[in-house]
Write a structure and sequence with these properties.
By secondary structure, this protein is an alpha/beta fold. The protein folds into three domains: about 5-245, Aminohydrolase, N-terminal nucleophile (Ntn) domain (Glutamine Phosphoribosylpyrophosphate, subunit 1, domain 1, 4-Layer Sandwich); about 250-450, Glucose-6-phosphate isomerase like protein, domain 1 (Rossmann fold); about 455-605, Rossmann fold (3-Layer(aba) Sandwich). Strand 20 (about 345-350), helix 11 (about 355-370) and strand 21 form a beta-alpha-beta unit. About 55% of the residues are buried. Bound molecules: 5-amino-5-deoxy-1-O-phosphono-D-mannitol.
């Protein structure tokens, strides 16, 4: 959702920023723009649509500037068009700004500025902010940096901004509250970006800006101050990301690459943590909190979308293995209730991006109520990772496809490890079961590899159902959240309406939808609900529904009664979701490709949802 790239140094800013904006395309956007300093003039170029359309407008033109700010916009205030795209000028056109987030009190500020003669061109809250900065600068005679700080003290809402000025060539001012901003520190050059992907090929030295901090590049130097003027020493960290991880590596889409990466990413989420031979399970971030978790009367899990589904899987795991009562909440609902948090409750926040606004706000609320918060995040140094008391990274590597795949399996793998560790500490599982789970966990990457070998069978099935108008996904127990996840994957990238249900709930309504045009995907692996799911399959077949069943290798009973079968290897029942979800990811992917959808950047969606 909205992306920021800014540069100051000795290189040509235009191509560098365009490339950076393309790296951020995965976040979701509807227009883009760039501001440059050309022949001592502040020039803004912007365009609705893809970054490539903005780039095409400038083919053959010499855009000479070694400073610039660029933006991809995901519309909140005002429709997606050229005018509302960022950057925005101030009233006297001496300043330009790019902004992620929402200025909630923009309307009041705008009214006051209009009274003072300011003329606004766009419908955006962002344009109001840059006019406001200019107004403060003129009224107080303060430096631009101080004017930015004064303006931000008045602002309600969330922001990551970068401001440039025609009067200060070589100077960039950036600030954040609630929206991410990373600073890349090179040799006599600096980069700003919403995440590290536009920066990685130039430098691995980065500074993550904190809320209420204002960074300034002036005379080739970086300084950081708080809004209250306290100076902070920039803490430079080394990025662990490699350039290959953010490129397609020969795959047609990032989503396909990420699906096929899962044997590696699941392995990485256990690396150094699980060693079955020695009955070893150790999550560094958990050590100081293991007793707290073991003593917890209740665990509240919060997340959104796919991360919420991972939370539902964890509910089964914690309850079954560690015998702890678990509630799984949509972060967006949790934050607007008055949730009851008791002593000895633990909150686990799950987020791939670590930037989801609702999850972040839910964490702050739970913290204010005295809860201990444990984070399960993928993006290192993200806002959620920093807002939690402790946590375990999923180490899935950058996930670029908007539809979450490897992040989900990594989340489930980490949550499984936590549940096993807590169960061991509590003594709610036997030593034998503990060892068996670790062995099976270690075997998961190889088994995922085997599921991926079925890709061509899944592609054929996808071909048959490419033009289905609806899909039902049914599962029981641990396969119920997988059914939800399968339905979400299909709808978000193929735009086919799909619903996930606990299989037994079908009789309470959805069964009315079943006819010969309704494909029903059954998660029917050999587990405790096997007999029950067979009855549910028969109910669908009796009504001529077309059944695609995900079954355990070697099963002969279900294949005899359904239309299509996809096999997954046998594993411990508690680990089933890690295998049964893979065919559903591939099915959605192939259907979406066959329907000609933009798989990696589906319409209206953003990779990290940084506004509520
Ligand atoms: O970054 P997060 O895990 O916090 O994101 C939560 C959801 O926005 C995300 O899982 C979304 O549902 C995905 N597009 C699903 O594929």
């Amino acid at each position: 959702m909205c992306g920021i790239v800014a540069y100051v140094g000795n290189r040509d800013a235009f191509p560098l920023i365009i490339k950076g904006l393309k790296r951020l395309e995965y976040r979701g956007y509807d227009s883009s723009g760039i501001a440059l300093l050309e022949e001592s003039q502040l020039k803004i170029y912007k365009k609705k649509g893809k970054v490539s359309e903005l780039e095409d407008q400038h083919t053959g033109k010499d855009r000479k500037s070694t400073i610039g700010i660029g933006h991809t916009r995901w519309a909140t205030h005002g429709e997606p068009n050229d005018v509302n795209a960022h950057p925005h000028y101030s009233n006297n056109r001496k300043l330009a700004i790019i902004h992620n987030g929402i200025i909630e009190n923009y309307a009041t500020i705008k009214q006051n500025l209009i009274k003072k003669g300011h003329v606004f061109l766009s419908d955006t809250d962002t344009e109001v902010l840059v006019h406001f900065i200019e107004d403060i600068q003129q009224e107080t005679g303060n430096s631009l940096e101080d004017a930015v700080k004064l303006a931000l003290r008045e602002v309600v809402g969330a922001y990551a901004i970068v401001v440039m000025s025609v009067d200060h060539p070589g100077q960039l001012i950036a600030a954040r509250k609630g929206s991410p901003l990373v600073i890349g520190v090179g040799e006599n050059e600096f980069f700003f970006a919403s995440d590290a992907t536009p920066i990685i090929e130039y430098t691995k030295d980065v500074v993550y800006l904190d809320d209420y901090e204002v960074a300034m590049i002036r005379d080739g130097k970086l300084t950081i101050q708080n809004l209250d003027n306290t100076q902070t020493i920039p803490y430079i960290q080394k990025l662990e990301m490699e350039l290959e991880t953010i490129e397609k590596g020969g795959y047609e889409h990032f989503m396909l690459k990420e699906i096929f990466e899962q044997p590696r990413s699941i392995g990485d989420s256990m690396r150094g943590r699980v060693k079955a031979d020695d009955a070893h399970l150790h999550l560094g971030g958990l050590s100081n909190y293991l007793d707290k978790l073991a003593e917890a009367k209740r665990i509240v899990i919060i997340g959104c979308g796919t991360s919420w589904h991972a939370g539902l899987v964890a509910e089964y795991l914690f309850e079954e293995l560690a015998r702890i009562n678990v509630e799984v909440e949509y972060a967006s609902e949790f934050r607007y209730r008055n949730p009851i948090i008791k002593e000895k409750d633990i909150v686990i926040a799950i987020s791939q991006s670590g930037e989801t606004a609702d999850t972040l706000a839910a964490i702050e609320l739970a913290k204010a109520k005295g809860a201990t918060i444990f984070g399960v995040c993928n993006v290192v140094g993200s806002s959620i990772a920093r807002a939690t008391h402790a946590g375990a990274y999923t180490h899935a590597g950058p996930e670029i496809g908007v539809a979450s795949t490897k992040a989900f399996t990594a989340q489930v793998t980490v949550l499984t490890q936590i549940a096993i560790a807590v169960a061991k500490r509590k003594g709610t599982i036997s030593e034998e079961m503990y060892r068996q789970l670790l062995v099976e966990l270690e075997n998961i990457p190889a088994k995922v590899e085997r599921v991926l070998e079925n890709a061509s069978t899944i592609k054929e099935i996808a071909y048959i159902f490419t033009y289905a108008r609806n899909f039902l996904y049914l599962g029981r127990g641990l396969n119920f959240p997988v059914a939800l996840e399968g339905a979400l994957k299909l709808k978000e990238i193929s735009y086919i309406h799909a619903e996930g249900y606990p299989a037994a709930e079908m009789k309470h309504g959805p069964i009315a939808l079943i006819d010969e045009d309704m494909p029903v995907v059954f998660l029917a692996t050999k587990d405790g609900s096997y007999e029950k799911i067979i009855s549910n399959i028969q109910e669908v077949k009796a009504r001529k529904g077309r059944v695609i069943a995900i079954v355990t290798e070697g099963d002969t009973l279900i294949p005899a009664m359904v239309d299509f079968v996809i096999e997954v290897p046998k594993t411990h029942e508690m680990l089933t979701p890690l295998l049964s979800v893979i065919p559903l990811q591939l099915l959605s992917y192939y259907i979406a490709v066959m329907r000609g959808r933009n798989v990696d950047q589906p319409r209206n969606l953003a990779k990290s949802v940084t506004v509520e």
